[in-house]
Design a protein that fits this description.
Length: 466
Amino acid sequence: MSKYDVAIIGSGPGGYVAAIRCAQLGMKTAIIEKYSTLGGTCLNVGCIPSKALLSSSHHYEEATKHFEGHGIEIPGEIKVNLEKMIGRKQAVVDQTTGGIDFLMKKNNIDVYQGMGSFIDATHIKIDGEKEIEIEAKYSIIATGSKPSNLPFITLDKERIITSTEALKLKEIPKHLIIIGGGVIGLELGQVYRRLGSEVTVVEYMDRIIPTMDASLSKELNKVFKKAKCKMMLSHKVESVVRNGEEVVVKAKNKKGEDVEFKGDYCLVSVGRRPYTAGLNVEAAGVKINDKGQVDVNEHLQTSTSNIYAIGDVIKGAMLAHKAEEEGVFVAETLAGQKPHIDYNLIPGVVYTWPEVAAVGKTEEELKESGVAYKVGQFPFRALGRARASGDIDGFVKILADEKTDEVLGVHMIGARCADLIAEAVVAMEFRASAEDISRMSHAHPTFAEAVKEAALAATEDRALHV
Ligand code: FAD
Ligand code: NAD
């Protein structure tokens, strides 16, 4: 039987990054993945394929709607070849997952393909082509998550679908009804709206992306409405039924009235749930909490001291970079180091266009905790770079402590915000004040100038260009 210092179950961004860091630190490492490709949800059916389709559909929208304004004329009709677009997406996925195979080899990590399950706290059975057993001093559970569903919905995966199917449709829906105005619903809703689908978003709460700062929800809602998406907020979905090629969604609106939506596809995107099926955690004494998550302490250690857990399968935001940080954290903990993660500084991004990005506290959270704060906001439309590109929607908002000027939260919507948020993370890691940011030179003309201007506005209400 092969013996390892560490065995990692699950090869998503949590698992494969943990494996690399363990190997870098000199541990004999194994990784177990039930699917034939490595990379987990993120690389196969999550972050990467969704961003590939967002990019392709963005190019199409640019060509059909915005090229003309730039003086670019394309004779003839511009058409979408969906099969080719989905094929390109798959090629990007294949190249990316292939890259993980390379990284495993490079770091001398043993890869086992098959379903991993605990025999006891130090032995794991792998059900692959043949059944094998390995011994591991430490294990890391990185089994990720699966889409959630509502109890009354039958997902037929043809017309009533999750994100996984929405990433490989064979036709452009005529009318896509989306249940849940969160990250998945909005990213994939925008993809199909750009490609020509009618899109209706049915959201239970009174705003989309409800966990982000309310100003971002409001601005993004405007963007979707401008694109002629129907945004049905405060709607409680009560049934979803398929009749042949039609899907009927029934809901109650805020006034308690019955409303009905008819489309040809329904995407259910109401969140994801931790995945531990078939792992046989009980045999290892690992406890699952009432949310179905693997229970961990502040060291990400489970109820069994030699078994750790990371990523979507434990508490916290379900984000690839959060899983990665936790993978590194556990590897370094096992090596006797004292790593640290500041969960307040894990940024959140929605890759719509304009992009939405945030880090730190929202205004709602600051109000609730009674912290006195000041706000500095700056619109992209006031920047030369934004006008030159034709991307003038959105703003940067900085929340700083009223007394100390320390930056407590940064919320932005606009072109390239997914990348711009990194500056805010760096500033907050170093506990910068708004004035610190405002005194740093930002290249002109860039979108990043909006961060400096928002910081100036927060410091002394002295933005220069509004
Ligand atoms: P996962 O990536 O889910 O990987 C878990 C792996 O474990 C899977 O490969 C699974 O097959 C394997 N596994 C499970 N049980 C076993 C077992 N018993 N034996 C062997 N293998 C097992 N996050 C972002 O930060 N940015 C984004 O842009 C983004 N976009 C997304 C878009 C979509 C459509 C979706 C669905 C998600 C997106 N996410 C995004 C979320 C991100 O994918 C997850 O947060 C991330 O993948 C979690 O990583 P993980 O390592 O915890 O688990
Ligand atoms: P989500 O939690 O982002 O959004 C779910 C939405 O569904 C919420 O707005 C919620 O209020 C709504 N909802 C819940 N029950 C409902 C009901 N009965 N009727 C109508 N609306 C209802 O979840 P998601 O969009 O499914 O994404 C799942 C996870 O994947 C998220 O945690 C997210 O972090 C991750 N993800 C991240 C990215 C990214 O980082 N860009 C992209 C995609 C997915």
